[in-house]
């Protein structure tokens, strides 16, 4: 019972954080969104996609056993659903989390909907998910995120996940739609940062947006110039600012942020700083498959310097 009370208290604080983005729960800062519980893409920090952060020390072993042993978790009210969803997310139980939230896909609650969007996307990213299922989950995730945005456009987690999900569908819709969506994606990442400037994931993702358009291939740039009077564009300096801000907010929070700091410095021909950040990316303890991929890329880049 004590563990359950802790769990409810934690998720309640997370939801308050989303409603009042100026509040920063120091002990709850986690790491990505990355991963994230009530956000951490809504809450400030359980995990982030690929960013695993153990919450066992806070929630208690008994609560972990209680939830992890259940093949499907059931809940009767929305607070219980959100509490259990945040715990399952923090425990890395992607499939259980999806099945829990999918039962409530007709909900009008933005907090539940953005979590369902995230869970759908995370399930799509699993290696065992088929190509066909991945596509359908990607579009379902966007639908849930869009509905969440309609219900509560003032929540930074909602804006962030809408932008992420909109970006994902670009892989299926061609270069013209992808470029057009880039404007909207940028708008919502910026909105998420405005609502919560202390969320490192939003800052990192804005950095990725800038990096992507800074290195856009020439043929895509020409297409963009033909289609739009003012096509999306950015610079490596701008990308660097966002990656550094993310690191300033929460040092070492995400292996990929370390990697992109190194890659950006490489683009800016700053070998010394590139070595520094790529080495940090290579040496950072790997918790996930993504972390291992980051370590591999960082080592390859270091060997090329």
TrEMBL record:
Key words, A-Z: Cytoplasm, Cytoskeleton, Repeat, TPR repeat
Organism: Eublepharis macularius
Protein name per its UniProtKB record: Regulator of microtubule dynamics protein 1
Gene Ontology CC terms, in alphabetical order: mitochondrion; mitotic spindle pole; spindle microtubule
Transmembrane spans: none
Family matches, as PANTHER family: REGULATOR OF MICROTUBULE DYNAMICS PROTEIN (PTHR16056), REGULATOR OF MICROTUBULE DYNAMICS PROTEIN 1 (PTHR16056:SF16)
Gene3D superfamilies: Tetratricopeptide repeat domain
InterPro entries linked: RMD1-3_a_helical_rpt, TPR-like_helical_dom_sf
